[in-house]
């Protein structure tokens, strides 16, 4: 096959490219430029899109003897990832920009161009497995498993994906990179949001959305203090509320609801964060069993808890309702609800699909 190796400049994508070459594929390395003002080093970029990362990716391709290109997706990234991030916070959601980047850029946009140029697949360094039936499964390395962030892809995207390192634990990947002589072998993993270089998300949102004063209230509607914008807060947040008057019971307060339209941020005790029902839209179907009413498990954060649930899927309405076997805490609108089918075949759980959380109860 003709394969595009998506080269982030990290150790995982380096070994993924090497394994694709070793498998006999015709491989070309591609680094995605997602910013027109990329930082020089990861210390200033904090994410995965610095000029240093691009140079590391090029060195790996040179060692492998494969062509290397940089493709500029900065305009599309700005619109579909950064713009979505800002818009979601402006309406009181808590988005995950890494999910949107995977969905819109690292797979959809890359595959769109790659297939137009005659490539068959994209290989990435994600920790997930595609089995012989094409089902997306968890990685055996549960500490690195990234099936959750891939659950927002389309079935068409997955049909053109390769995850060469997904069946291997991270320490082995670093050993393999060292054996190849890759400079990325000991490189630390990326972290934080790549388009917020200083890591100050609230300052970024303040500049992007502007002041929208509102009120923090308790569950009885009692006004506690004014705030500068509901975008400062996320469901489940405890720190940074700056409420001078303690709760009557003396217990900590958490953000339990955000109404961006009125600017009202509601706080309450931790038990008020418990959610037993989730509604989700913008559905993605990765397995035929995601239809009608079914029993499965759901995960709502990249490294969050997994609980059993009964799901009612309405394809026509592009909506599903999840009744949870046990409550989850701190579930926010804008997060992804990824459904899993547990298996007893010794392989990882199967990803059925996903939806974007639009309501809780």
TrEMBL record:
The record marks 126, 335 as: Interaction with tRNA. Signal peptide: none annotated. Gene3D superfamilies: Adenine nucleotide alpha hydrolases-like domains, HUPs, Translation factors. NCBIfam families: PRK00143.1 (NF001138), trmU (TIGR00420). It holds the Pfam family tRNA_Me_trans. ATP binds at residues 6-13, 32, 125. Residues 144-146 are annotated as: Interaction with tRNA. This is tRNA-specific 2-thiouridylase MnmA. The active site is at residues 101, 194. Belongs to the MnmA/TRMU family. It comes from the Bacteria. Catalyzes the 2-thiolation of uridine at the wobble position (U34) of tRNA, leading to the formation of s(2)U34.
């Amino acid at each position: 096959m003709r394969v595009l190796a998506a080269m982030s400049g990290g150790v995982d994508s380096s070994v993924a490219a090497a394994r694709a070459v070793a498998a006999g594929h015709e491989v070309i390395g591609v680094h995605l430029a997602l910013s027109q003002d990329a930082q020089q080093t990861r210390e200033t970029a904090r994410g995965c899109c610095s000029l240093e990362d691009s140079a590391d990716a090029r060195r790996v391709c040179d060692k492998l003897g494969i062509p290397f290109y940089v493709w500029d997706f900065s305009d599309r990234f700005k619109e579909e990832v950064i713009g979505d991030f800002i818009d979601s916070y402006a309406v009181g959601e808590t988005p995950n920009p890494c999910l949107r980047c995977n969905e819109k850029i690292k797979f959809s946009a890359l595959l769109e161009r790659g297939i137009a140029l005659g490539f068959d697949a994209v290989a990435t360094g994600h920790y997930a497995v595609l089995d012989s039936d094409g089902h997306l499964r968890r990685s055996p390395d549960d500490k690195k498993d990234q099936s959750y962030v891939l659950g927002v892809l389309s079935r068409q995207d997955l049909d053109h994906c390769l995850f060469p390192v997904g069946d291997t634990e991270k320490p082995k990947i670093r050993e393999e990179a060292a054996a190849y002589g890759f400079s990325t072998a000991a490189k630390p993993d990326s972290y934080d949001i790549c388009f917020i270089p200083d890591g100050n998300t609230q300052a970024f949102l303040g500049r992007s959305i502007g002041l929208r004063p509102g009120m923090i209230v308790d569950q009885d509607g009692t006004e506690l203090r004014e705030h500068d914008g509901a975008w400062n807060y996320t469901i489940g947040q405890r720190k940074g509320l700056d409420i001078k008057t303690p709760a009557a019971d003396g217990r900590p307060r958490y953000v339990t609801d955000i109404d961006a339209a009125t600017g009202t941020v509601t706080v309450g005790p931790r038990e008020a964060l418990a959610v037993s029902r989730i509604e989700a839209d913008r559905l993605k179907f990765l397995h035929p069993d995601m239809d009608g009413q079914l029993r499965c498990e759901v995960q709502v954060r990249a490294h969050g808890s997994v609980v059993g649930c009964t799901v009612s899927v309405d394809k026509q309405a592009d909506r599903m309702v999840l009744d949870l076997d046990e409550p989850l805490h701190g579930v926010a609108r804008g997060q992804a609800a990824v459904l899993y089918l547990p298996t007893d075949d010794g392989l990882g759980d199967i990803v059925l699909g996903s939806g974007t959380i639009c309501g809780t109860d």
